[in-house]
Specification:
It is built from seven helices and four strands, in the order ααβαββαααβα. By secondary structure, the chain is mostly helical.
């Protein structure tokens, strides 16, 4: 290299920015990690397993500061376990929040001057799934912006085929073991439903 080439300043477009712009760096980097499967777990691995299931956020809203705090702690823990050689799975998912979701969808219908009875059962259920797609997409987007190191290929929804059956099986087992019971009081009741 000649002495003149060493003294020339870098081209203007190759200068480092004066401030860090996280959106320009973190989003593309995170998506590259997801595409490369860095957060996926191999069920056939010989490594010791470490698994965390997200307490699933309700599909009725968006993440709040409590979720952000919880996700930050779980993310730090799962990344540390990966570095320690564990086959780590952070399982993402969302809860259907049946009564709350029904209320949200019914409120939206009310703005249109309709009720669930106007739609009928099938059309109302279809509308609920539409709401889940919109709200659930918002929650997934927030988790991506947080940089959650979850195994997106394993994302689940409590009403998914198979998962719903697993939930029923576990509730039955808990009931048989007398760890949950049915009593006279209604505890999951909403006056709007």
């Amino acid at each position: 290299m000649t002495e003149n080439a060493q003294q020339q300043p870098p081209a203007p477009d190759s200068e480092l920015p004066t401030q860090y712009a996280p959106a320009d760096v973190e989003g593309p980097l995170y998506e590259r990690w997801v595409e490369r499967g860095y957060f996926e777990a191999d069920a056939k691995s010989d490594k010791p397993p470490f698994t965390v299931v997200i307490p699933p956020p309700n599909v009725t809203g968006s993440l709040h500061l409590g979720h952000a705090f919880e996700h930050t702690l779980i993310d730090a823990l799962t990344r540390r376990k990966r570095m320690q050689g564990f086959e780590t799975l952070w399982q993402p998912g969302m809860d259907h929040a049946g009564i709350a979701t029904q209320n949200v969808v019914e409120r939206e219908l009310g703005k249109e001057g309709k009720s669930r009875h106007d739609l009928g059962r099938e059309a109302f259920v279809e509308r609920v799934w539409q709401w889940k797609g919109e709200s659930g997409g918002q929650i997934s987007g927030q988790m991506r912006r947080l940089g959650d190191g979850v195994a997106w290929s394993r994302e689940r929804f409590t009403m998914d085929e198979g998962l719903s059956q697993a939930v029923q099986t576990i509730f039955k087992r808990l009931y048989d073991d007398e760890l949950i019971y049915r009593a006279e009081r209604i505890i999951n009741w909403c006056p709007g439903a």
